[in-house]
Hints:
The protein is about 50% helix and about 15% strand. It is of the alpha/beta class and about 375 residues long. It has a domain at about 30-150 and about 240-280: D-Maltodextrin-Binding Protein, domain 2 (3-Layer(aba) Sandwich), CATH 3.40.190. Strands 7-6-8-5-9-11 form a six-stranded mixed sheet. A five-stranded mixed sheet has the order 2-1-3-10-4. Helix 6 links the parallel strand 6 and strand 7. Helix 4 (about 120-130) packs across helix 12, helix 6 (about 180-185) packs across helix 11 and helix 8 packs across helix 10. The protein is globular and about 65 Å long.
Amino acid sequence: MPTGPKLSRRTALGVGIAALAAPTVVRAQPLHWRMVTSWPKGRTGPGISAKRIVERINAMSGGRLQIDLFAAGEIVPPFAVLDAVSNGTVEMGHTAALYWQGRMPAAGFFTSVPFGLGPIEHQAWIELRDGQALWDELYKPHGVRAFLAGNTGPSMGGWFRRKLNGVEDLKGMRLRVQGLGAEIYAKLGAVPMTISAGDLLPALEKGSIDAAEFLAPATDLETGLPKYASFYYAPGFNKPNGASELLISLSAWDRLSPDLRSIVIEACRAEHTLGLADAYQTNAAALTEILSRYPVRLEAFPRSIIDAAQMASVQLLTEIASTSPLAGQIVESYRSAQRDLRGWSALAADMSRANTRAASVAQ
């Protein structure tokens, strides 16, 4: 039987030594995580953001970190996302910080504050000032950390079954509203109701609530709110920002290599930018559709409501600051960002309005 050429003793010895000297490459097993959300599957805005973040991480990690996405209710209810990540049921969650203000009064600052920072200002506070460090400190006792992870932009004021003439019309009104805005409305005499996104339309349809604040035109249209309320109010003073958060358990985060951590952070950062651009695009089209398809009246809040809400907001922030030293730091840091950024923000808004008027004239 023919054989191949024989190796000399010297050659064979050299091959053996080379094999022993070569480093053994040990490939780490891919990490397989689950992400739960507070949103119905594919929900315009935050639901889409969650999906895109998962797709980015899966692709950018080259399969080393694979995440499965679950809608609200598939593993845990929409308002149980923090607990699910905190207790290790899942590794990640996509939600909004405003849902946790009952246990952390300052949590709402990481989603939206009435009459507060807009989306870009808020991102500047989180990423370029001390917002992220304060956020980390606030969430650490719960065993999680959070990152900005999408933004639906400023919200509308909400859907009302009847026209508002003044603050007195809010007395006793059952209003679906969440976050710090709920506390503002309570101070004005309304009855805030906590209702998940999936249960919102049936509540409005059945008359369990008199009004509903959710997000902005694209999400409101998809949810079906124009079918059951005729007055659409602006501005959304109670929610000028629409930041989502990605929650990660600290124990899971500690298991990630530095490059995988960077991938998670950059996937979230990219979604804040794209999500905000997406919101402006889809909301413009949705508002046109709402006003053309439904007997809806676009209304401005009466001045008396805006003034009363502003006074209530100042009072509320002072109350939150008094709840703990950390809450006081968060409130002061946030107010400092407002003071520093408002001059440029006002000028930029004036330029935007001027450009809008010029475009209208040109058409």
